[in-house]
Design goal:
The structure holds two protein chains of two kinds. Chain A is about 45% helix and about 15% strand. Chain A is built from 14 helices and twelve strands. Chain A has a single domain, classed as Rossmann fold (3-Layer(aba) Sandwich). In chain A, strands 1-2-6-3-7-8-11-12 form an eight-stranded mixed sheet, with helices on both faces. Chain A is α/β, with parallel strands linked by helices. By secondary structure, chain B is an all-alpha fold. Chain B contains four helices and no strands. The longest helix of chain B is centred in the middle third of the chain and has 36 residues. Chain B is elongated and about 80 Å long. In chain B, about 5% of the residues are buried. The chains are: A alpha/beta, B mainly alpha. Chains A and B meet through strand 1, helix 3, helix 5, helix 6 and helix 8 of A and helix 2, helix 3 and helix 4 of B.
Chain lengths: ~350, ~170
C-alpha cells in the first residue's frame, strides 16, 4: 500500500508538471513547435506554405508506385505516429515500401483565427497534394486521415476526387447524431454564444480548452486510472517508457483556429451537415457521392472519443464501389500506438493499398 | 439493454462493498496467519479497485447525461467567459498606458509585429511562381542499415539541426 501511495504521489507530480508545461506552450501566441522531442525517423521538409510543413519519409527498399500522404489532426503534434521504436506508424509504412508524406500543421496564432476549412483543405492540403504530385511525378496519391485529419482528408477527397487514388480514414467522426457517448450529452447544453464568447476572448480555441475536453471524456482514467495502471504494469517490459512518451504527447494540445473551430463545432458536431451532404467548404457543398476512390474506413471498436457507430456509416455514404470498414479491437489512440495496430492493422492497411497500387482510378 | 446495464452496475457496487467489508480483511488476515499469500491479497484488492472504477465511470456517465448538470456546467462556463471578457477589457484599458511608461511592449504590439513578419514571409513566398517544392533525389533509396544512417537530420525554422533520437 505504501509503495502504491509513493508511486501515485510521484506519478501525480510528474503529471502536474506535464500539464503545466502544456499550459505554458498553449498560452504562447506562437506555439513552440521546436519543443517537440527529437525525431525517431529522419525526414526532409520538402514543402512549406500556409500553415503546413510537409515532411517526407523515404521508403525502405523498392517504393510502391503511389506515394502516401498522412493527414494528421490540427489539434495535436504529429510525432505520435513516430513515437518510439516498435511503435511508429511511419516506420511501419516505410518498411512496407511506401514513400510517406506527413502534414506537420503549424499551430495558429491569433492572426490566423480567420482560417476555416476552406483555407486548410482548398489551400494548404491542395498545395501539399500538388507538391507531392510534382515531386513524385504522379497525378494521384493515397491519403490516410486520422480523426480530425480524417475529416480534412474526406473533405479534400470529395472536393478534389481526381487527385486521390485511395482514401484510408481512421476513427472518423462522421455521423455526429450518434449520442452513445455521455460527453456528447453534456456538450449539447452549451450554447453557440458560449463558443463565440470563447473565440472573442482568445481568437482561436485555446489548447487548454481542447485538453480539458479530452480529459472530461474520461475523467476517472485521466485523474487516477492511468497512474494506477502504470503501477500495476511496472513489470511489463516497455510499459513505463511508453507511458512517459505517450503522456508527454497528450499534454501537447495545439490551439484550433477560430473559424475552423466554429465550422467543426456548429456544422459538423451540432448540425451533422457532413452526414447529410450539406456541409459547405468555401463556396462548394461537400457531396460524399463524389468520393469514388477506393475507401478503407478503420474503426476502433473500443473508441471512447469517436464512438464506433459514428464512423460505421461512412463506407456506405461514399460514391465508391470499393469501400469497406475495418474494425480494430483497440481504443481511439490504439490505432496508432497499440501493439495490435503495429502487428495487424498497419500491415493490413499496407496490403490493402498495395493491392490497389497499380490501378488507375477515374 | 438498460436493465443489463443496471444489473452490471449493481453487481459492481456489491463487489466493491464485499471487497472492502469482507474479502480484503479476510485475505489480509489469512496472509498474517500464514494461510494465504500476498499475491491473493493483492488480487482481491485489484478486483475491488476495478469494480470501483466501473462504478465511478458509470456515475460520471449518469452525471453527464443529467440535464440539470449539463445546464449548470454550460451556464458556469458562460459566466466565467463573460467575466474574463470584462476583466480583459478593463485590465487592457487601465494598464495600456502603464506598459508604455515602463518601456515594455504590449501583447497587441507583439502580435502586430508577428503578423507583419508573417505577411512579409507570405509576400516572399508569393514572389516565386506556383509552389516551391524540394526536388526528389533521382537515385533509388537503399535499405536502411540503422536509425542513424540518414540523408540529413531535420532542420527547424531557426536553422538549428536537432539530433535524431537513438534507437532502442
Amino acid at each position: 500500500m505504501l509503495t502504491l501511495l509513493n508511486h501515485l504521489s510521484q506519478s501525480f507530480s510528474e503529471s502536474a508538471i506535464r500539464s503545466l508545461d502544456g499550459l505554458r506552450r498553449g498560452f504562447a501566441d506562437a506555439y513552440p513547435v521546436d519543443d517537440d522531442p527529437s525525431p525517431l525517423t529522419s525526414y526532409d521538409v520538402v514543402y512549406e506554405g500556409g500553415k503546413v510543413r510537409l515532411r517526407y519519409y523515404p521508403a525502405v527498399g523498392k517504393s510502391q508506385a503511389t506515394p502516401l500522404l498522412f493527414v494528421f489532426p490540427l489539434i495535436k503534434r504529429p510525432y505520435v505516429v513516430d513515437l518510439m521504436p516498435g511503435c511508429s506508424v511511419i516506420h511501419n509504412l516505410t518498411q512496407q515500401g511506401f514513400d510517406v508524406y506527413l502534414t506537420d500543421w503549424q499551430p495558429p496564432t491569433r492572426a490566423d483565427s480567420w482560417r476555416g476549412f476552406d483555407a486548410y483543405v482548398n489551400s494548404d492540403l491542395a498545395n501539399v497534394v500538388r507538391a507531392i504530385q510534382i515531386r513524385e511525378g504522379v497525378s494521384q496519391i493515397s491519403m490516410v486521415g486520422y480523426c480530425f485529419g480524417g475529416l480534412l482528408a474526406t473533405l479534400y477527397t470529395a472536393l478534389h476526387p481526381q487527385t486521390i487514388k485511395n482514401l484510408v480514414t481512421l476513427t472518423l467522426p462522421f455521423d455526429t447524431s450518434v449520442r452513445e457517448l455521455a460527453f456528447t450529452h453534456l456538450v449539447d447544453h452549451f450554447r453557440p454564444q458560449t463558443l463565440e464568447l470563447l473565440l472573442a476572448i482568445y481568437g482561436n480555441c485555446p489548447a487548454w480548452v481542447i485538453n480539458s475536453a479530452f480529459k472530461a471524456m474520461g475523467p476517472v482514467h485521466s485523474l487516477v486510472g492511468k497512474h494506477v495502471d502504470l503501477y500495476r504494469h511496472l513489470d511489463r517490459e516497455g510499459y513505463g517508457e511508453m507511458f512517459e512518451w505517450f503522456e508527454n504527447w497528450t499534454s501537447r494540445d495545439v490551439p484550433l483556429a477560430g473559424q475552423v473551430c466554429r465550422e467543426v463545432v456548429q456544422g459538423i458536431f451540432q448540425q451533422n451537415l457532413l452526414g447529410q451532404n450539406r456541409f459547405q467548404v468555401g463556396s462548394r457543398t461537400v457531396n460524399l457521392a463524389d468520393i469514388t476512390s477506393a475507401v478503407l474506413n478503420v474503426i476502433a471498436e473500443h473508441d471512447t472519443i469517436v464512438h464506433p457507430k459514428s464512423s460505421l456509416p461512412f463506407a456506405e455514404a461514399v460514391g465508391s464501389t470499393d469501400a469497406r470498414n475495418l474494425l480494430v479491437p483497440t481504443g481511439h489512440m490504439g490505432v496508432v500506438v497499440s501493439g495490435v495496430a503495429h502487428k495487424k492493422l498497419w500491415p493490413q492497411v499496407g496490403a490493402w493499398l498495395k493491392e490497389r497500387d497499380g490501378q488507375w482510378i477515374h | 439493454m438498460a436493465d443489463q446495464k443496471t444489473i452490471k452496475q449493481m453487481d459492481d457496487v456489491m463487489t466493491v462493498t464485499k471487497t472492502l467489508l469482507f474479502d480484503l480483511p479476510l485475505a489480509h488476515m489469512r496472509q498474517r496467519l500464514g494461510l494465504g499469500e500476498e499475491k491473493e491479497t493483492a488480487e482481491t484488492a485489484w478486483k475491488g479497485y476495478d469494480a470501483g472504477v466501473r462504478v465511478v465511470n458509470a456515475a460520471t456517465d449518469s452525471l453527464y447525461r443529467n440535464p440539470l448538470f449539463g445546464n449548470v456546467a454550460a451556464r458556469s462556463a458562460d459566466m466565467m467567459l463573460r467575466w474574463q471578457r470584462i476583466s480583459s477589457a478593463v485590465g487592457g484599458a487601465v494598464f495600456a498606458g502603464l506598459w508604455q511608461a515602463v518601456g515594455l511592449p504590449t501583447v497587441a504590439e507583439t502580435q502586430a509585429l508577428r503578423s507583419e513578419i508573417r505577411a512579409l514571409r507570405e509576400e516572399l513566398r508569393g514572389q516565386t511562381n506556383g509552389i516551391t517544392v524540394k526536388p526528389k533525389v533521382s537515385e533509388p533509396h537503399t535499405k536502411r542499415e540503422g536509425q542513424q544512417d540518414h540523408i540529413q537530420a531535420p532542420v527547424h525554422s531557426n536553422g538549428a539541426v536537432k539530433p535524431l533520437r537513438a534507437a532502442a
